[in-house]
Structures are given as structure tokens and as C-alpha cells.
């Protein structure tokens, strides 16, 4: 996979702003030497470098989608906030106006459709990419059924991987193929693409039913309720992400959950089954780039596989 924007690569970061021309758009990138992940000395310049290089794989998973920007102005140890309003963006950044019944107002999200827009957002502190589950202009139709498998200590990533394998077989039993990725932290996320018309009410109800069936079958391993008091040692099968206004971290996004950089990385079912140590499932930026170079994007079928909910 060729490096799309060589000029962004900053192996020796500089405090001076960088003026770059990216796909015909002029960017002014600042604070390239600021350390964002203290345990690794990983800088803003290196975060920009990663996103410039991973853009060919990442951007298809963002295309057309309203984006919640999760901004870390001073790195992963500083405060962060979720930004749903695309204020202050350059005029060439695409917008996604979405009506919110909950708020009684229109929210104008950013859409990150190209490398320049992506890098502009990272320069604004957007370390994590959080797209909605719908694509413009049809914001009422999800393109995937999503399960976020979130372990409660002492359960961890390996326990989440085990539940992901069980979930895969359960979905296969009703005719749905699925793909997995790490959350980039302690969990695993499972996506079943739905490239046929269906509403969020249907996907949310179906996901809840699946989670509750798993909890009934495996009460010692699985919980379907978000109450933290009942999650100790079990894996929450979070069905609530299947919502019109909720965003889920994208494949190939950096995560800011740890003091060193990790990625929400696609994982094969074989990797999940074979893992004996969490490090096998928790990948960093360079590992992910090497995988893409060798194998391309294994998560691409989530964008193209045509299947529907049972009975749909």
C-alpha cells in the first residue's frame, strides 16, 4: 500500500507548523511534536502520518457517514470531548445535516470524505473516528447490525473474543455472515452488514433479542444489561449501539483508551479462536499498516455484502 501523502510523515517532529498540499487542498498542520501517547512518545505528527497512510483503507468506511469527532486537544491523558457540530471546518469539508428529534434541532455533522478532510480533523485533535451507522442521505437506514462486546473485569479481551465466536455461530444460524474487529482496547466488535432496507427499530430489537438469548444460554459468561453491578467477570453484549444517533468507532481508527497507540483492527475468526494472549489481538499502527500492505482490507465485505435480517 503506497504512502498517499509522504510530506506528512514526521519521524523527527517539529514545533513549526507545516503547510501541505493534500489532494489539491491546502492544510496548515500545527503542534506536530506534541506527545499524544506518553507511554510511547507517540506524537501528533506520527498520528497524522498514520492516518495519511491508512486513508485508502479507512476512508471507504467513513464515506457518506456523519462523523462524531472525538477530540483530544492535549493527548490521551488530557480532557476530551465529543464534537457533533462541524463548526470551523474549511469550506471543502462535506457536511451532514441530521435532524435530532431528541434535541429538537438539526445537527450538522462533518463528513470526512477525503484525505485532506481526514487530516484536518486529526489536526483539530480528532484521534478517534466515530461514524454513524447510516449513509447520506438516508439517515434512517443502518448499513450494519453491530454488537459491542465489552468485558467486565476480571474478564478481558480473550473472554470477549470467545463470546464473539459464539455470536458468529448464532448469527450464521439465522443466515447472517459477520466480521470482527478489536475495539482497540478491551473489547471486540462484531458487524453483520445489512445492505437492504431496514430501520433502526428493527436492528435494535433484533440485536437485543440475540444478546438476551446469549445471556440466558450462558449466564456465567454473558450479560445483556448495561448495569455495571452485574458485569463483573462477564462480557456485555451491547446491543444499544444500533441507534440512529449513536456512533461506533471505525475500523482502522486509532484509540485513545491506553497511554500507547492502539487501533480498532479487523481480526480473523481464526485469530480470535487461536489467541492465548491479549497482545495477539491488540494491534498498533505499524502492525495494522503491515497487514494492509500484505493482505488488503479484510473488513471490506462489511461495505458490500448483501444480506437482510431474518424475516426482512
SSE layout and pairing:
Layout (H helix, E strand, L loop, with lengths): L17 E5 L2 E5 L5 E3 L4 E2 H19 L4 E5 L9 E3 L10 E7 L4 E7 L3 H9 L2 E6 L2 E2 L2 E5 L1 E8 L5 H17 L5 E4 L5 E6 L6 H18 L4 E2 L11 E4 L15 E2 L6 E2 L2 E2 L1 H6 L10 H11 L5 H4 L8
Helix pairs in contact: 1-2, 1-6
Structural class: alpha+beta
Order of helices and strands: EEEEHEEEEHEEEEHEEHEEEEEHHH
**Helix segment tally:** 7
Q: Please bin the fraction of helical residues.
A: 25-40%
Oligomer: single chain
Looking across the biggest beta sheet, what order are the strands in?
Answer: 15-16-12-14-13-19
State the name of the first-level CATH class of the largest domain: Alpha Beta
CATH topology of the largest domain: Alpha-Beta Plaits
- How many runs of DSSP E, i.e. beta strands? 19
Indicate the low-confidence ranges by residue numbers: 1-13
Rg from Cα: 19 Å
Largest sheet: 6 strands, mixed
Describe the 3D structure.
- The protein is an alpha+beta fold.
- It has helices at residues 44-62, 115-123, 157-173, 200-217, 269-274, 285-295, 301-304, and strands at 18-22, 25-29, 35-37, 42-43, 67-71, 81-83, 94-100, 105-111, 126-131, 134-135, 138-142, 144-151, 179-182, 188-193, 222-223, 235-238, 254-255, 262-263, 266-267.
- The protein contains 7 helices and 19 strands.
- The strands form 7 sheets. Strands 15-16-12-14-13-19 form a 6-stranded mixed β-sheet. Strands 6-5-9 form a 3-stranded antiparallel β-sheet.
- Strand 13 (179-182) and strand 14 (188-193) form a beta hairpin.
- The protein is globular, with a radius of gyration of 19 Å.
- The termini are far apart.
Amino acid at each position: 500500500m503506497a504512502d498517499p501523502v509522504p510530506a506528512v510523515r514526521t519521524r523527527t517532529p517539529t514545533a513549526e507548523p507545516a503547510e501541505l498540499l493534500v489532494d489539491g487542498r491546502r492544510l496548515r498542520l500545527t503542534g506536530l511534536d506534541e506527545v499524544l501517547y506518553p507511554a510511547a512518545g507517540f506524537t501528533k505528527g506520527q498520528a497524522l502520518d498514520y492516518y495519511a497512510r491508512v486513508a485508502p483503507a479507512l476512508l471507504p468506511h467513513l464515506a457518506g457517514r456523519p462523523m462524531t469527532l472525538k477530540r483530544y486537544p492535549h493527548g490521551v491523558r488530557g480532557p476530551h470531548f465529543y464534537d457533533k457540530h462541524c463548526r470551523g471546518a474549511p469550506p471543502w469539508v462535506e457536511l451532514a445535516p441530521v435532524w435530532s428529534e431528541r434535541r429538537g434541532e438539526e445537527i450538522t455533522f462533518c463528513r470526512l470524505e477525503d484525505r485532506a478532510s481526514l487530516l484536518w480533523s486529526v489536526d483539530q485533535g480528532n484521534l478517534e473516528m466515530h461514524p454513524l451507522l447510516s449513509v447520506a442521505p438516508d439517515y434512517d437506514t443502518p448499513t450494519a447490525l453491530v454488537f459491542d462486546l465489552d468485558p467486565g473485569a476480571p474478564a478481558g479481551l480473550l473472554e470477549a473474543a470467545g463470546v464473539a465466536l459464539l455470536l458468529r455461530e448464532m448469527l450464521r444460524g439465522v443466515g447472517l455472515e459477520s466480521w470482527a474487529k478489536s475495539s482497540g482496547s478491551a473489547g471486540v466488535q462484531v458487524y453483520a452488514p445489512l445492505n437492504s432496507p431496514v430501520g433502526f427499530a428493527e436492528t435494535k430489537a433484533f440485536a437485543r433479542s440475540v444478546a438476551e438469548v446469549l445471556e440466558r444460554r450462558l449466564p456465567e459468561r454473558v450479560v445483556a444489561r448495561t448495569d455495571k453491578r452485574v458485569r463483573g467477570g462477564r462480557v456485555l453484549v451491547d446491543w444499544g449501539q444500533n441507534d440512529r444517533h449513536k456512533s461506533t468507532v471505525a475500523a482502522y481508527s486509532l484509540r485513545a483508551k491506553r497511554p500507547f497507540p492502539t487501533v480498532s483492527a479487523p481480526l480473523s475468526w481464526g485469530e480470535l479462536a487461536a489467541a492465548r494472549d491479549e497482545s495477539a489481538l491488540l494491534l498498533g499502527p505499524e502492525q495494522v499498516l503491515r497487514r494492509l500492505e500484505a493482505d488488503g482490507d479484510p473488513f471490506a465485505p462489511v461495505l458490500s455484502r448483501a444480506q437482510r435480517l431474518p424475516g426482512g
